[in-house]
Amino acid sequence: MQALVVPRRPCAAAIGRPALGGGRHTARWAVRVCASGRIANKELLEVAQRAAQAGAKVVMEAVDKPRTIEFKGATDLVTDTDRASEDAVLAAIQQAFPNHAVLGEEGGVSGDTSSEYLWCVDPLDGTTNFAHGYPSFAVCVAVLRHTTPVASTVIEFGGGPGSWVTRTYTASRNGGAFCNGKPIQVSKTHNLTKSLLVTGFGYEHDECWAANMKLFQHFTDVTQGVRRLGSAAVDMCHVASGMAEAYWEYRLKPWDMAAGVLIVEEAGGSVTTMDGRAFSVFDRSVLVSNGFLHEKLLEKTEHATSHLVAEGIDLSQWFIPKGYRVHAGAQLE
């Protein structure tokens, strides 16, 4: 399935400018809105970038220092930096859009869930990598209008201890995808034997994990390799920038996927579920590719996923915040 493209609608002029007030000069950011009352994607992207940068600053300050590590599960880590980064990200979002809903990995749901906008925040995607000083990990911020991502930012950390560097990926619906301000595109590879793929594995070694192990083995045999980096958002950004041809994974959460899938689509790639259905960030599987290889990949992932469903494995939509209005199957631009 090729990335959906829908025509833009004209927006009205700006309704205000940043105003400073108080001893700490806290900015109140006015926004541009379309004639229908919707917020312009450009304005949403500016806030997504600002919020991600705030989180990335927290991460960069902590990256080579001792960390306080806790466990959400046997191997699912969370650090004090995850929480501090999310606090910084949420502060930037709430300053600009206090009436929007937010879904954060650490803090859960906040804000007004009757809003048509939902911010999905992963303050440190790849916490295990971060905890070990191993690249890559990222700060991810995206905003949905109903089920449709309309603006996103992923700040990837690469390098290593003492030499960390970042790359900033951004996208807005119908506005293109960029890395450090330069346009990016998916690769033009049409042949699986010439492709490099990426996947991920959940913390639970369950039926989905076992099915993906078989997919990993198959695609390792028929491609130039399959990588497992440990950050879904980074994996998708690597597909968007042409470094890899495809990425797939089961049982991710909205904050894992929302930022990356928009960047892939805007870079010219394709996004579906692993059984070939139209994708929503509330789904429980994702397949992203350069588009040229999508049907070939689906020949294997669709069979594996259909078998899981037939065996009674729940791959239905994940948690949707109570009161949040979801209009499935429609591009709402």
From TrEMBL:
<keyword id="KW-0452">Lithium</keyword>
<dbReference type="InterPro" id="IPR000760">
    <property type="entry name" value="Inositol_monophosphatase-like"/>
</dbReference>
<dbReference type="Pfam" id="PF00459">
    <property type="entry name" value="Inositol_P"/>
</dbReference>
<feature type="binding site">
    <location>
        <position position="125"/>
    </location>
    <ligand>
        <name>Mg(2+)</name>
    </ligand>
</feature>
<dbReference type="GO" id="GO:0046872">
    <property type="term" value="F:metal ion binding"/>
</dbReference>
<dbReference type="InterPro" id="IPR020550">
    <property type="entry name" value="Inositol_monophosphatase_CS"/>
</dbReference>
<dbReference type="GO" id="GO:0006021">
    <property type="term" value="P:inositol biosynthetic process"/>
</dbReference>
<feature type="binding site">
    <location>
        <position position="256"/>
    </location>
    <ligand>
        <name>Mg(2+)</name>
    </ligand>
</feature>
<dbReference type="InterPro" id="IPR020583">
    <property type="entry name" value="Inositol_monoP_metal-BS"/>
</dbReference>
<protein>
    <recommendedName>
        <fullName>Inositol-1-monophosphatase</fullName>
        <ecNumber>3.1.3.25</ecNumber>
    </recommendedName>
</protein>
<keyword id="KW-0479">Metal-binding</keyword>
<feature type="binding site">
    <location>
        <position position="105"/>
    </location>
    <ligand>
        <name>Mg(2+)</name>
    </ligand>
</feature>
<comment type="pathway">
    <text>Polyol metabolism; myo-inositol biosynthesis; myo-inositol from D-glucose 6-phosphate: step 2/2.</text>
</comment>
<keyword id="KW-0378">Hydrolase</keyword>
<dbReference type="GO" id="GO:0007165">
    <property type="term" value="P:signal transduction"/>
</dbReference>
<feature type="binding site">
    <location>
        <position position="122"/>
    </location>
    <ligand>
        <name>Mg(2+)</name>
    </ligand>
</feature>
<dbReference type="GO" id="GO:0046854">
    <property type="term" value="P:phosphatidylinositol phosphate biosynthetic process"/>
</dbReference>
<comment type="similarity">
    <text>Belongs to the inositol monophosphatase superfamily.</text>
</comment>
<dbReference type="InterPro" id="IPR020552">
    <property type="entry name" value="Inositol_monoPase_Li-sen"/>
</dbReference>
<dbReference type="GO" id="GO:0008934">
    <property type="term" value="F:inositol monophosphate 1-phosphatase activity"/>
</dbReference>
<keyword id="KW-0460">Magnesium</keyword>
<feature type="binding site">
    <location>
        <position position="124"/>
    </location>
    <ligand>
        <name>Mg(2+)</name>
    </ligand>
</feature>
<dbReference type="InterPro" id="IPR033942">
    <property type="entry name" value="IMPase"/>
</dbReference>
